[in-house]
Design goal:
The structure is a homohexamer of 337-residue chains.
Chain A (H helix, E strand, L loop, with lengths): L19 E15 L7 E9 L2 E7 L3 H5 L7 E11 L2 E11 L18 H14 L3 H11 L2 H7 L15 H19 L5 H18 E3 L3 E3 L1 H5 L1 H15 L6 H12 L16 H26 L36
Parallel strand pairs in A: 3-5
Antiparallel strand pairs in A: 1-2, 1-4, 2-3, 4-5, 6-7
Helix pairs in contact in A: 2-3, 2-5, 3-6, 5-6, 5-10, 6-8, 6-9, 6-10, 8-9, 9-10
């Protein structure tokens, strides 16, 4: 997700107290507040963001009028001064205007994969190209030959927050799931390899409709009301309808594998896996999801001297990142004397 | 499910010891067994059935050869004598041949609704005809104007065993769910009436593909691997694809209502209800399902002098049918003196 | 819940900035706060409420002394000026005194049903009057002929927060449950109609003791420690003790139906339904509870342009209210280009 | 449960092959079966029982006529010969007649506690006598001064199968629960001792109605439909109604403790413990129940050389009784060489 | 946990407005805040604590410099004035310096058992001394003869927050569990008494490593990553390795009892109890844990006039402490007229 | 698991009616039964087994005496005739004697992996040899350099029934888990590769003690009472005790990874995964377990023309093996006309 050619020259993570900056920022929050001396009227507090983080900003002068000119979700061109106040860096805004669409790159305002997108796309398309079962190959190509589909594939996050929650995250996850699939196929000759590969590749069919991403990642209404399992099944059923020679039992196996891939009713699967490829797809997809989820949770906290992340409510526990010098003795030497 | 014109003149529930009978029966089980005096060779034990029940039958003579001529699932024309042995009625078979398809009515061999099918069809079609929202009406008519669909609708059981598990059972359930829907609509003006009616009517779209019924009711392979929720969604999504003017948000509401109608993830719903019509459909469908299920379980046992049904494993308890004279004092007067 | 004859002339939902108002308000919160200039001492912040909503109020002058004169939960007669501050309407209090009991109507301070209470009472009493089984009729009339009971019945909310959580809410729910019961009875002749009606009517016996409502709705100590299931059973068992000819088995069926009406152990039922009427009562009561709960949750949020309600922790999901123009295309057209 | 004065002189557990016996036995099962040589007609197979066990019996001569003279559940006076056949002891019946009520002691036909009943009754009554809080004492004596109640108390089993499932079993359990209660009271002065004792003593109020025991232990219809929690609450509420000076809050605490004593909704408690005495009663009653349950399961299997009991479905595991010489090395020395 | 010889003369719970105090306090929180008049710079807000409670404190003068001299977790020697502000007692700090280790007693800063520690240690050692099975006695003495172990035993809390969450709490719990064990042994002769006592005594082996306590109670890294079940098993297995004559089956029974003592997989037991002593240990330990947990929750709230504690999230309910005059009529007389 | 050099020349799966056979068989069941003509005394029915399956056998002559000479679990040398009776192959035994230990190979009587054991051992040892972190390498070699350990490793099944339930099954599983681990390490550079490999390799430490296998696979007493999680932790903790320089935090990470590898409390994990390597190990081990479990269940049923396996109680569903010609149209064409 290169920023080559971007007009955005300063990023939040680089701002240093004392410097003057002119750059583009996304408005996440916006609030007018009265001065302590009410006679002075109101000032404006903003939360500005780009893909590297977020920063508090203040507009001291002419705030009410300026507040009228933009909304949360807008990208602004801002000139201002970076300050430190009570240990936090903040931006004192001097000039503001709303940026027009062509001025900036969307990718500058959402976190994105650090891997090479084109390379990942090629890796996935290589798997598509190697499918030898002709019906499965035709079904998969129905999607992967469609430029709209592949354009979305290159961007869609894997989830809103849980794992790979950034532009290109799904693609990254998909390449990893495909790699696990090859291992499974090599180890278990009973698996129908092309069927399992097809299952992994067609998970994308629902995913591209589940999320929307612009200046933030969120579920689409369809994603919330129908879910990517049903959305994917719809897309695959429609594609199958256009392939009249597709063997019915094979179609049943493909669809069963996709709709059961969450593994358990209570995890949102309308059916639980009943074929070898279905159980394999469920487990390798889960394995990569959870490894990535732990990786992301640990990354958020690893910088400090704190060995534990905060308590994670969904997991019901904190995670252990450990000490810098992981091979050495930890500082936890039991009860103090 | 009238038997007018049927060549089947005797039914299992009518057989009396001492009479000679010639009629058609479905073979449910078939087993060769050695005589106690092994020198005598083997006899044949059959379980014969029709829609009124099942009866044990024996072939004493020439059994191994006769056993070769038919298979479990065949309908046989049988002549034999009804006997009583150890308190059970059984049939001593004298002559057997496999019946050809035209000789008998399928409906004689599966239990069927006792209600008037044509009347129930009319009641349902009347609901269809009264829909006033034009898009919903068009969507529903896509199914209910299709003679193949309505032919299946008239026959499909509601489930294999749980409730309304007989020919015409789904239709009976559907008319009842529609009646509950009218009550809900009358009580809660916030409900979009046509939307809720559409939801109830389109539950049929998946149901007709989930089960197969010929000489027994069972799940189809599709029914097991995809389930009626997904099968129904496929059919509705396909129908919507043929209605280009159908408002997208309304389509989303229809599909959400259908895919969430089981109410909870652990009951096989890929999404849980998030709209008013979806929660209403879930609850009225569940209410009628459970009332009918209890009714059927109690009916099986009510004849005897036994107030309790057997322990039901799925429910985790027996049911209470009570004493004949339900208004009077029961025989259970506590600890014996 | 008419306010005819009430001395309360202004309601919170009607207050407009700029007007002077004199009316009665319930004190929900009360807090002395220092002026920014501490030399000026303290002012008083109040949260005032009536059945239409709540409003922030301030007492600038002589606040500490005034604060001594009343407590949270009191109804005050207040004269003051309505202002707008930072987009919120607030009330600047000029005069305050505690109102005496006779001055106001309790119903003005709690939200109440918008339906006609007398009409609902009549509808319920008509069901009572139509019971034909004499023992059940006598048992039900034991309650519904008691003016204390019916006075409470006209007021008791159905729950503290979950559904119909306002004065007269239980009565509204009861009329709806009785309507569903009539549908069930009409559809399933195996149901003992009077028994099911009795079950619905006697749910009230525990409900009137579970909650207390005065200036707020809350559980009584009995409601928390024993619950309405046990409280209702106590009342019914006591009534049965006064009806010596009541058939014991019928009494058992009535009590079983009531104590099992929550349907599952984990939902607080000491027994799970084992009779046809018990399963029917459970399901129709649940259906109406959940429809009303969704209706109330959606109503709270429907005004805005926001299609989704907030995340509901008990349900584990947000609800979908949709767009104003529900038949049209929604604004959610997938990923931004 | 002494058998002094019983006319029953031989018990199942004492029968030895080769001896002739005349004694009383309870008929548990009864079935006519054809001789292998059908010309010989039918013989009768019986399962006969007394409190020490059960034995298979056969009637070879005149069996159909004899079978007409008695039913399952009758106590028979039988003369016959004890034989061994294929390693099992069986009884060849020569003479049979139905015994009349006065001839035998019920206690000879149901398993019973091996402890001294009178002594246990005295121990319990001593706890009753020591209660010092006058209201609680009066409430408890309402039950324990009632000879009908105490007669049942001396006999009622604690459950049908789970633990202490024999005559006098509840009394045995109760004395043990009271002993645990004294320990809890001594350790935790915050406990209201008389309140906790009252809770343990009044558990009996529901228990005596939950089960019926005559020639077998089973749930009464009331026990199944209402459960001992509700039955006990009814009895206690009725007793409280006759004690007008009983402090209302104390009554609430007593009833809460009783109805919550199963501890969790999913275990059938209509409320979960919310007071100190309620949580204590739940835990000490559970502790003794489970210890006794394990003891009984282990006793059944301990005789053999088999260290493990069979798999117990409710527990989801087998139990470990171990080897005779429990202190020594077990025979399980890992993989065979 | 006597404070004899402590230099700490004033405790938080004793501070009265108007007095000047010089004493030692633990810093729990520390925050620089700007004066409303920013020209005045910043003041310092502290949360100071000792074993009796916590108090808000302010440093008005020279706050930024003073804030540099200590950290959260330090014990400070503070001189200041106690004031009342808005109904809360607070401390205006005049002088501060960090105390050195020798100046204060750790026990003054953590809550501690109010029972006599030496007496409890003696009671536990008396149980150890009475063990008659020589192998078990040797195993237990391996721990209880070790002065490091017994030093920790005298201090370790039973948990961070759940129950007995104070210095000496585990010891208190252990003596109570041992008392319950004696009752169980007396009631159930089938129990191997020394085995059960050993189980209770060896629970300590894991507990002393699970928690760390210094200026706060928290889990150690080992406690979080391995848990006291595994830590205890490690210590016991190691001790057994040093006792070569210990009978293998007895060792298996000891270890099984310890690793299954949480009772259920979902409560963190790697195995569920399968022996009589294991089920007994689980239940008596749970009983005392829950009684103490309720006692502690109720104690926190009992002072006020509020009969209910706050809603407890883990329990899913509030607890009922009741009214001062618990024997009298409560103020909850149902709906207000 | 080659049978080279075995004296066993005929296997159950090869027996053909009409041939005479002399070979070794394991006795699984043994039962004396009376001839129908009782005068003839008793015959003996045996269930004989080897690693290829089991066969019913009869001894007609001199059965009671012969039955005295051997027990269930013995390996017999048998001469007899293979017959077909009622469609089943059975063996009529002519001569029997108990085989002595040296005569046969254990591997002939238990099912065993079809893969090359030496090759798998080499593959695993190659992973051990490639470990570069010196402490982890030393810990792993403590086990893998021990010839007793590796001898057991070559034989131990992965479970009694669930998956890889045959000799060498664990080794097969381990090589597969290690292959998945390499994929995970390649995909996720944040993983500590040697730590994850160590985790997989040390799972064996508990496994070799959990099961015993001789003439049948079963849990050892230790396996049942402590489980392989605790047994493995004991072995690893003991090994660590012999490696005094092993970094404590690294030891904690290794042990945490092992004790949490079942993933959830309810699946028997005393802790849930809190590190990246722990979550990875859990998921890749589960993935391979479930794929192999499905493979084995499907293999059992795939031969017939039946597309579905029987209902699997643990899974709560049948599995779908499909039709021979999986690519073609299945025979399930919906409702019969």
């Amino acid at each position: 997700m290169s920023s080559a050619g971007s007009a955005k020259t300063s990023f939040v993570s680089d701002l240093k107290p004392g410097e003057r900056v002119t750059s583009y920022f996304l408005v996440r929050q916006k609030q007018l507040e009265p001065f302590r001396d009410r006679a002075k009227g109101e000032f404006l507090t903003l939360m500005l963001a780009d893909r590297t983080g977020q920063i508090l900003a203040r507009v001291w002068d002419n705030a009410p009028a300026m507040a009228e000119t933009f909304a949360v979700g807008d990208v602004l061109k801002i000139a201002g001064d970076v300050e430190e106040y009570q240990g936090r860096t903040q931006l004192i805004v001097q000039k503001v205007r709303v940026a027009s669409e062509g001025e900036f790159l969307l990718a500058d305002f959402l976190p994105a994969t650090t891997r090479d997108v084109a390379e990942m796309v090629n890796a996935v398309q290589a798997v598509v190209a190697r499918l030898t079962e002709p019906h499965l190959a035709a079904l998969v190509r129905h999607f992967y030959d469609d430029p709209d589909f592949t354009a979305q594939l290159a961007e869609v996050p894997a989830s809103r927050r849980l794992h790979h929650a950034y532009l290109g995250g799904w693609l990254e996850h998909l390449t990893q799931v495909l790699a696990f699939a090859e291992t499974a196929i090599a180890l278990h000759p009973e698996l129908n390899g092309d069927l399992l590969r097809t299952g992994a590749l067609l998970l994308s069919a629902g995913k591209v409709h589940e999320l929307k991403w612009g200046r933030a990642v969120d579920y689409s209404d369809e994603g919330r009301l129908l879910g990517h399992v049903v959305l994917g099944d719809e897309a695959v059923a429609q594609a199958l309808a256009g392939l009249p020679d597709f063997p019915p039992e094979l179609a049943l196996r493909v669809r069963h594998m996709l709709i059961s891939h969450r593994g358990r009713y209570e995890w949102g699967a309308p059916r639980e896996p009943m074929t070898l490829e279905a159980i394999a797809l469920h487990h390798i997809e889960s394995a990569n999801t959870q490894i990535a989820r732990f990786r992301d949770l640990l990354a958020t906290r690893r910088d400090g001297d704190q060995p534990w992340t905060g308590f994670n409510r969904l997991l019901g526990r904190p995670l252990y990142a450990g000490y810098e010098d992981a091979g050495g003795a930890g500082p936890d030497d039991g009860p103090e004397a």
